[in-house]
Amino acid sequence: MINLTILSSHPGLSLIIILIGFVVAIVSAQNDPYYTTTDLGSFNHNAATGNPLKGFLSSPDWNSVQQLNSFPTSLEFYYVGLNKVMTDYNTFDWDTYLEPRLNNSESRNRHVILRFILDYPTEPSYVPQFLIDDGLTFKNYSAYGGGQSPDYNNTNLRTALLQFIQAFGERYDGDTRIGFVQVGLLGFWGEWHTYTDGTTDDWIPGSLKNDVVSSFQTYFSTTPIQVRYPWPAAIDAGFGLHDDSFAYATLDGVYNGGINVAWFFWRLVQE
User: Fold this and answer.
1) Which terminal CB of the chain, N or C, has fewer other CB atoms within 10 Å?
2) How far is 67 from 72, CA to CA, in rounded Å?
3) Measured between alpha carbons, how far apart are the two ends of the chain, in Å?
4) Per-residue pLDDT tens digits for 47-77
């Protein structure tokens, strides 16, 4: 069984579509007590069709409070820069940035979907400063509005990422404020790719992706985990998937004017 999150997460759209247990997606461990409908009080039945982990949602970082309060949803999404919570090796500040967001969503009776990131094109780097001070270098790129991609071969970065996943899991696995955790961390928008010309994607070592998967598998046994694309180790670990370009880059071939695109979401799932 898998869990599948279908996203159209461009802030300009201010909308994410989540389909869980519908057509092609089944939430694993659906009888587990974690998937109760009352852990956050009385959620919005009209928005979630009797299921607190599916439906339409947006992000509090994209919308006004008025929009949030009027939008029929039981889920909210957050990108979180790693530098917002990790201040040094094995040193974390969960209370300043993350906890208020989790608590605010909980106050609206909504589960949270979290994705930690290092690199969001057009925005300043979210790499923790201590790694930069330790000599981490970057590749500048102009695609998607430009940005800085950290050197994913850097051993200090690898160490920090694995320390973060362990601490994150030990503190938050099974936290009922959280509906899903998306692995994120690597690549543009935490999507596990560094495509700069539509085809080249060789900045993230496969060994690092495997290490990240292994760490999430070790430290998260309750909260469902998702990745952007069907990376083999992640699929073997039972992780779900999220499609960040739902409709725009989901189906190719006959559904895309007869044009085949190797990286479109459903093509990769089928392969």
Assistant:
1) C
2) 10
3) 17
4) 455 556 766 677 888 877 677 777 777 788 9
Q: How far apart are CA 257 and CA 49, in angstroms?
A: 34
Q: Are 56 and 47 in contact (CB under 8 A)?
A: yes
Instruction: Please give the DSSP secondary-structure letter assigned to residue 96.
Output: T
- Could you read off the pLDDT of 114-172 as tens digits, one per residue? 999 999 999 999 999 999 999 999 999 998 899 999 999 999 999 999 999 999 999 99
Q: How many CB atoms lie within 10 A of CB 21?
A: 16
Half-sphere CA count of 180, side-chain side, radius 13 A: 32
Q: What is the DSSP string of 211-270?
A: HHHHHHHHH-SSS-EEESS--HHHHHTT-EEEETBTTTSS--BGGGTTB--TT-HHHHHH
Q: Give how far the C-alpha of residue 206 lies from the chain's centroid of Cα atoms, to the nearest Å.
A: 19
Domains in the chain, CATH or no CATH each: 4-270 (3.20.20)
In angstroms, the CA 19 to CA 87 distance is: 35
